[in-house]
Amino acid sequence: MATSGSRTIGALLLASGLAVPAAAMPPILEGSELYMHACAACHGVAADGQGPVAQVLSPPPRDLRTLARRYGDPLPTDRVAQFIDGRELVKAHGPREMPVWGDQLRERGKSPDPEAAVRRKIDAIVAYLVTLQTK
């Protein structure tokens, strides 16, 4: 779990306006930034499922702070990454409701290995979600 000190350092880096390449950012900091860009509209800034568009979604977005309660503690990060990626449909999970972020996060033409870039981004989001889990 991230300490308040590491969150403070991360916030200072973001606030500084320094251009830090995503690949050079600590995973939790990059994950926080990616989460705010890609996930917060539905799942909320606090990851509580109360994003600004949550009221119009059916089913409503999940409270991502309780993933460890639902799926196990420690959080099975590979499984969470599969949910986010979405390119491999898991029949047992039923129909897919959220966007396929594995496609959305691809850096077309910007990376020599776009698949590795997608994995890095999804892993960063998962690392950030791990820090948000409540007991």
What attributes does this structure have?
single chain; about 140 residues; mainly alpha; 7 helices; about 50% helix; disordered N terminus
Describe the structure.
- The chain has one domain (4-132).
- Helices cover 49% and strands 0% of the residues.
- It is built from 7 helices and no strands.
- Helix 2 (27-38) crosses helix 7 and helix 5 (77-85) packs across helix 7.
- It is globular.
Topology:
Blueprint: H1 4-16, H2 27-38, H3 40-43, H4 67-71, H5 77-85, H6 101-104, H7 114-132
Give me the strand/helix succession: HHHHHHH
Largest sheet: none
> What is the total tally of β strands?
0
Rg over C-alpha atoms, rounded to the nearest angstrom: 15 Å
Category from helices, strands and their pairing: mainly alpha
The low-confidence parts are 1-7
Strand content: under 5%
Q: How far do the termini sit from each other?
A: 12 Å
| Global shape | globular
Tally of domains: 1
- Average pLDDT works out at 82
- SS field, number of helical segments: 7
- Tell me roughly what share of residues is in helical segments: 40-55%
